[in-house]
Amino acid sequence: MSATETAEAEVGGIAADRLRSIVERIERLEEERKGLANEIKDIYAEAKSAGFDVKVLRQIIAIRKREPAEVEEEETLLDLYRRALGM
Q: 59-66: which pairs have CB atoms within 8 A and are 24 or more residues apart?
């Protein structure tokens, strides 16, 4: 590789082609994420129009992502606190 080719491949010690590849992959994934977010938004709108409470759906989805033991512990504490407050 000549000095000119080396200078084009690395700028300030950075491999320009590798950097460009990484940036383009991130940009592509960001676009995919944006598209997925729009699809999710549409599904929530569909659920709302079908009479479902979107806030509760979001809570259910968040709970399903967590470990069952963690959820059970939280629900036990919530029940304990409610009883202590007479709720």
A: none
